[in-house]
Each structure stands twice: as structure tokens, then as C-alpha cells.
Design goal:
- 44% of the residues lie in helices and 17% in strands.
- By secondary structure, it is of the alpha+beta class.
- The chain folds into 3 domains: 53-79 and 267-498, MetI-like (MetI-like fold); 90-193, no CATH class; 198-264, no CATH class.
- A 4-stranded mixed beta sheet has the order 12-1-18-17.
- Helix 1 packs across helix 12, helix 2 crosses helix 12 and helix 3 (263-299) packs antiparallel against helix 4 (301-315).
- The longest helix has 37 residues, at 263-299.
- It is elongated and about 145 Å long.
């Protein structure tokens, strides 16, 4: 008997679950660029090296300094000359005889004189007066009249400060009458000279003197007669915070004169030239060496042998000697070459002189790297797939040979300003101006007068402008050490065997 039990309702069918939404077909993703992935891996390992990051930060700061210098209105080919305007230099002039000559070595201006006799009891007439120097010698006639014996002990003239100390000297000859031959006289000149400073001026005053006014800076003296007019310390003050006109102090080549250069201006503009010259030499040498080394290692055989013998010839040329020969050409060449101006020509020839002796080192490094790369499996696979030799060199050998070049470049770029500074210190003129704003040049100029400053330590008060030697040397040191830190980090990041 079929059917359900009596009194029992039929069971309801189980609910059907809703169908899951159809998944969208995944779009075919773009294959990651292997070069970008490799750079990301390099940056990952580089940032783990603290010193490498410090070096990179210093280099970026120097690059920012160069970009800022490009916006400043400073001369590109010579440092701006500054002049100390309010300095004083105590001077007394003494002469014996009938004709008395004053050679105060002062600029054009108004001079006042005071005459007093030391014997024979003669009084000068006039005893005081003024005369004006206008670029030529001037004669002042003085007559001496006999006086009572009480005049014999007239006090000697006191030392009166004079203002200014710039060549050429002007002779003032006193022709006196009424005085026996052989008499002794003391002449004191008090000078109010016009301001001969042109261009940028900085107010200074002598050590122990009253400041002429606000914003003036003190200069040192070793005695009452010997003062260093252009030795100005850094003008940075903290209360209130201000840098002043000479934040890194004066760069003086002749401290006895009032003319000097601004160390900060030289280092600021030098950031442009130093980075440009260094990168031009290193990048140019690396490009030539990369091309020559890649061709030599990839082709091998006779091509490799011929290129390496050419590299040996260039390596046998003494680098410094060749650069000195190029420098001799620079000093003899007065005009421009290849359409360059007379100011840019020495810089171009200097870069060429370094390039000629710099690229063989990179060619050797690249060739050794290529000899290893050309035996790798991926190069053999490319060759088996029918890739031509040119494509293999361009797509596989050269890209994988560049990493040792980066390391060598980072090591070399910091040595260029050091070599330039050494050559300038030895007396070779590399640029059109002797005061060219480049880090090596500024560093060399800063120590030229070091021996003269050290002699002051033997005769009395020791005056050594530490800022003149410290700041240019510090900039060179930071540049050289930063690229060495960075190169060490690049070596670890690019070579898997050295990754820690």
C-alpha cells in the first residue's frame, strides 16, 4: 500500500542556495620591468648601509648648494674682491737731513703735517699745514726761523693714525730754508684720505680701537705699527642670529692690504664648478672606457689585443705630467677654441687633459667584467636564439658591466678637486683668473700665505686665520668622504656576494 501515513503532511523541499556571482576574468598583468626591479633591490640593500646614506645625504646637500648658487648673482670666472674701508694704521715717519721725504703709501686724499725741531732751536714756518695728493708727488716749502734756546727741548711729535694703505706711494718732499745741514727732524702725517674702495665694502677697525660704527669688524695687530687689515674673522653672531657680510670670514692673499675675498662666496660658486668639472671628467672617462672595454672584451682576439695595447700606451702617460703640459698650453693660448670664450677655453682644455689619461682605467675595469659576463648562461641563450653580436653587447653585456663603473666613478669624482688644488698650490695657473671660484682653487689660495702667518708666531702675537684654512678644507673633505661612503654602499648593494 503506497502513500504517506495518515495525518502527516508531505516534507517541504530544501531551499536552493543563491548562485555565487561569476568572477570577472583577471586582466593579463603587465610584466614587471626587470631593470626597475633590480634598481629597487639595489636601493633596498643600499639603505641598509648607514654610512652610504650619510654619504648620499651629503652629496644631495652639495647638489642643492650648487642649484642655489646657480640662482645667486655671483661672478662665474673670478671671486669678487672686497675692501676694508674704515681701518687705521698708526705710522710715524722720521728722516734726518736738509731734505725730508715722506712716503706714506697712501691713496689720493688730504694730508696734514706737523713739524718740530729736535735741535738747533729752529721753528718751522709754517709748522702745520695741509696738502692734497692727486696721483703725483707734491712739494711743500717750509722756512725755519731761529728761536730762543728754550725751544731746543720741544717734544717730539706723537704718532697719529692714518687711514688707508694702498699702493702706489706718493712722495711729499719738504724743501726747507734757514736750517743748517745735518739737522734731525721728526715729521708726523695725519691723513684724511678719500675712500678708494670700489665695489663691495666691509667696515673694519684695528684691535684696541673704538669701532667706527655699527656693523664694523675688528682686525688683529701684532704691534702698534703692524696690523692685518684684511684678516676678518667669521661674522656670524648668535644674539641676534645673523650671518653678516662674511659668514665664513675673509680669504686674504696679502694681509697687509685691505683687499680680500669672501670665503663663503668662493665656496658657494665653487659648488657649481667643482661638481661640473668633476662629473664631466669622470662621466666622460667612464663613457669612453665603457665603450672601448665592452668592444674589446666582447670581440676578443685581434680586436681585444689591439685595443689593450692602445690602453697600455695611454696608461704609460704620466697623468700629472700630461695635465701640466696641457696647462702650459692653456697659459699660452689667449683666445677661444671650438667657439668657446676665452674664459671657458681653459676649463675645457683642463677637462680634456684629465680625460685623456682617465678613460683607460675604466676600459680595463669594463673589459675584465665583460670577459666574465660573456660566458654567462643568459648570454649563451641569447646567442643560441639567434641574437646578433651587436644586440648581445647592447642589451646584455653593457648593461651588466655598468655596476663596477658606478663604483669606480664614485671613488674618482672626489679626487678631481684635490688634484686641481694640488696643481694650483704648486704654482700652475689652470684658469684665466688666479682667483677662480672652484673648491680646489679656493683651498690652494687659502694656504698660500700660511708661512707668512706662521712667522708672526715667532716675532710676537700669533695670528693665524683658522677659518681661512678650515672651511675650504672641510668642504673638500666632506665631498671626498661622502663619495667614498656612497661607493662602499654601492659595492655592497650591487654585488650579491657582499650583501649583508
Amino acid at each position: 500500500m503506497s502513500g504517506t501515513p495518515s495525518g502527516t503532511a508531505p516534507a517541504a523541499p530544501a531551499p536552493t542556495p543563491p548562485a555565487a556571482p561569476a568572477k570577472k576574468a583577471a586582466k593579463p598583468g603587465r610584466r614587471p620591468n626587470p631593470r626597475i626591479a633590480q634598481w629597487k633591490r639595489t636601493w633596498y640593500f643600499l639603505r641598509r648601509n648607514t654610512l652610504a646614506l650619510v654619504g648620499l645625504g651629503i652629496i644631495l646637500a652639495l647638489v642643492a648648494m650648487a642649484l642655489y648658487a646657480a640662482t645667486t648673482p655671483l661672478n662665474y670666472y673670478t671671486m669678487t674682491q672686497y675692501c676694508a674701508t674704515s681701518q687705521t694704521n698708526p705710522t710715524a715717519f722720521t728722516s734726518t737731513g736738509v731734505d725730508l721725504t715722506i712716503v706714506p703709501s697712501l691713496d689720493n686724499g688730504t694730508y696734514s703735517y706737523t713739524l718740530s725741531t729736535t735741535q738747533f732751536g729752529f721753528a718751522p714756518s709754517p709748522s702745520t699745514g695741509n696738502f692734497t695728493v692727486n696721483g703725483a708727488a707734491l712739494t711743500v716749502n717750509v722756512t725755519f726761523v731761529a728761536k730762543p734756546a728754550s725751544f731746543h727741548n720741544a717734544p717730539a711729535a706723537s704718532v697719529v693714525p692714518t687711514a688707508g694703505a694702498a699702493p702706489p706711494p706718493y712722495s711729499v718732499v719738504f724743501h726747507e730754508s734757514g736750517l743748517p745741514a745735518g739737522a734731525s727732524w721728526k715729521v708726523t702725517a695725519s691723513v684724511t684720505s678719500e675712500n678708494q674702495c670700489k665695489g663691495s665694502q666691509v667696515c673694519t677697525y684695528l684691535q684696541g680701537s673704538t669701532p667706527p660704527g655699527p656693523g664694523c669688524y675688528q682686525v688683529p695687530c701684532t704691534s702698534a705699527q703692524v696690523c692685518y687689515l684684511s684678516v676678518i674673522a667669521p661674522t656670524i653672531t648668535l644674539n641676534p642670529p645673523t650671518a653678516g657680510p662674511l659668514p665664513l670670514g675673509a680669504l686674504t692673499l696679502n694681509p697687509a692690504e685691505q683687499y680680500f675675498y669672501n670665503t663663503w662666496d668662493g665656496l658657494l660658486r665653487g659648488s657649481d664648478w667643482s661638481l661640473m668639472i668633476s662629473l664631466s671628467i669622470v662621466a666622460g672617462g667612464a663613457m669612453i672606457g665603457l665603450f672601448v672595454g665592452a668592444i674589446s672584451g666582447a670581440f676578443g682576439g685581434v680586436v681585444d689585443e689591439a685595443i689593450m695595447r692602445l690602453v697600455d700606451i695611454f696608461l704609460s702617460i704620466p697623468q700629472i705630467l700630461f695635465v701640466i703640459i696641457v696647462i702650459a698650453v692653456i697659459t699660452q693660448h689667449q683666445g677661444g677654441v671650438f667657439g668657446l670664450s676665452a674664459a671657458n677655453t681653459p676649463i675645457f682644455l683642463l677637462i680634456v687633459g684629465f680625460l685623456v689619461t682617465w678613460w683607460p682605467f675604466y676600459a680595463r675595469v669594463v673589459r675584465g667584467q665583460v670577459l666574465v659576463i660573456r660566458e654567462q648562461k643568459y648570454v649563451e641563450a641569447a646567442r643560441a636564439s639567434g641574437a646578433g653580436r651587436g644586440r648581445i653587447i647592447r642589451r646584455h653585456i653593457i648593461p651588466n658591466s655598468m655596476y663596477p663603473i658606478f663604483i669606480q666613478m664614485s671613488l674618482d669624482v672626489g679626487s678631481i678637486p684635490l688634484l686641481i688644488g694640488a696643481l694650483i698650490f704648486l704654482g700652475f695657473r689652470l684658469f684665466q683668473s688666479s682667483y677662480f671660484p672652484e673648491w680646489g682653487s679656493v683651498s690652494a689660495l687659502s694656504v698660500i700665505q700660511l708661512q707668512g702667518f706662521l712667522t708672526t708666531c715667532q716675532v710676537g702675537q700669533c695670528i693665524v686665520p683658522w677659518w681661512q684654512f678650515l672651511f675650504p678644507g672641510f668642504v673638500l673633505f666632506m665631498f671626498a668622504i661622502s663619495v667614498n661612503f656612497l661607493s662602499d654602499g654601492l659595492r655592497d648593494a650591487l654585488d650579491p656576494r657582499l650583501r649583508r
